[in-house]
Amino acid sequence: MEALLSLLAAATVASASPGDCSALEGASGDVVVAKANAIPAGVAFRPDDRTTFYKSVPVDVPFCRVEGRLEGTIGFELWLPMAWNGRLLGAGVGGDAGVFNYLDMSLRVAQGFATVTTDSGHKVTDAHWMRVPKARTDYEHRAVHLTTQAAKSLAARFYARPVARSYFTGCSGGGRQALKEMQVHPLDYDGVIAGAPGPNMPLQSVRMMWFALEAQRKPAAALSDADWSLYESAVTRACDPLDGKVDGIITNPLQCRFRTAKLLCKPGQGEGCLTPPKLSMLNAVIAPLRDERGRAMDRGLFPAVRTRPGPPSPLLRAMWADAAHDDPDWDALTFSRTGDLATINRVMPQLRADSTAIAPFLAANRRAIIYQGWQDPSTNAGPTLEYYGALARDNGGLTKLREAVRLFMVPGMYHCRGGPGVDTFGASGHAPVSEDPANDMLWALIRWVEQGVAPARIEARKIAGESSFTRPICAFPSSARLEQGAWTCRHDPALLAWPSARLKR
């Protein structure tokens, strides 16, 4: 497959005229372009996005819409703007994939990017796709890699010149895809943006599965969304002032100390507190997850991080029932933290994205930005900090690592966006305001790759009507602090202390 795509890249440049959209249709080995339609300017084009949560914004620039598949099962779309800036942008997808990221494609094609996305090798409507070994491997890493190669070949054919620079952006599962590109396919992209990547997805999934089941087993202790809001608000009130401004945002939870016992209901109190069973459940959820022998499997949650109440999500169920056990009728109550984790690591060995062996990526002068919301309830911040610390340890130290890979911790942000803090800064799913690297993470990455200027801070925004505001997010190991009425990025020793003591497992 890879050899075929290389031949395509070398042989097809002269086979079609620049801008000849229909000439891209047809099959070449495992690459099939089913449709290639010219979309005219000014039509406010939107694809049929009813099956995806990556909803498109209207596109008014003219482009060639390419719809295709690889190896019969890997779907992709490639949008080729008539006014091309020479760059390719890969757009990752999260969750259990099976959809296209029309949002990032539509946001960036107007800026001149050729944009590409893949469903990762299955459709969202495919029941029990995790029972198929090829679908699992494509989901882990192959689909993005093969789609990228095909996109570069098709773009070279369409424009009669090769892609000059290529970038990838994604959050959640898309962030994990970005890390896999850095780790496994380091020459695919000149730069990647990995948001909320969940470097150890299997272990994160064990945590989420276990406590969802615990809530089912102990309904009197189950925490509602209101209970989590109560906890989040109490912690925020206690720790908000530490950064110099009371604004409902905790800049660095590592500096926060909060006793959950303050939330215990007093005699006769029925509201604004937690019953003893609920408090016990809260303490168990935020503490390090323990295996069946009582050994810590992770380091727990940071203060103010809420979690998702309710039963296990469909993705969690699919991971254990379909992938780990190959049994759609699997009884979730038999779930084993230790045993099922070992099984999923064996069945899907490339699902983890915590490899620190990135020497080829660094040697090729590639660049990566990782970003993570401090209050992310889905892919928690702790593993991302641990991974960055491990990257520094295994790649010449923090100073050396920062020459190529930088981490931005986002105060008050939930999963990819949302929460009380700023959550719009030109990352995946974020509407670009301009091409200014000062407030757009993608353009900051581009300037880093193409001009050698590493980003130290990005002016992020919160767009919420009258409560809209801006605030910098700072490159690790700095945090924002208000000094004499202005936000500055200051070295934060607390950030360095935590990942250096990472759990060995």
Question: What's the gist of this structure?
Answer:
With 505 residues, the protein is α/β, with parallel strands linked by helices. It is built from 14 helices and 14 strands. The protein has three domains: 1-163, no CATH class; 176-200 and 352-505, no CATH class; 203-349, no CATH class.
Number of DSSP E strands? 14
Mind telling me the C-alpha Rg?
23 Å
Tell me roughly what share of residues is in helical segments: 25-40%
The computed structural class is alpha/beta
The major sheet is characterized as:
10 strands, mixed
How would you describe the shape?
globular
Please give the alpha-carbon distance between the first and last residues: 36 Å
Order of helices and strands: HEEEEEHEHEHEHHHHHHEHHEHEEEEH
Quaternary assembly: single chain
> How many structural units, i.e. domains?
3
Residues in β-strands, percent: 15-25%
**What order do the strands of the largest sheet run in, or round the barrel if closed?**
1-2-3-4-6-5-7-8-9-10
Ranges where pLDDT stays below 50 over 5 or more residues in a row are: 1-17, 501-505
Mean pLDDT: 92
Q: How many distinct helices?
A: 14
List the SSEs and their pairings:
Blueprint: H1 2-11, E1 26-28, E2 31-39, E3 63-70, E4 74-81, E5 87-91, H2 102-109, E6 114-118, H3 133-159, E7 165-171, H4 173-184, E8 191-195, H5 201-217, H6 225-239, H7 276-286, H8 314-324, H9 337-347, H10 359-363, E9 367-373, H11 381-394, H12 398-401, E10 405-410, H13 441-451, E11 457-462, E12 469-474, E13 478-483, E14 486-491, H14 493-497
Parallel strand pairs: 5-6, 5-7, 7-8, 8-9, 9-10
Antiparallel strand pairs: 1-2, 2-3, 3-4, 4-6, 11-12, 13-14
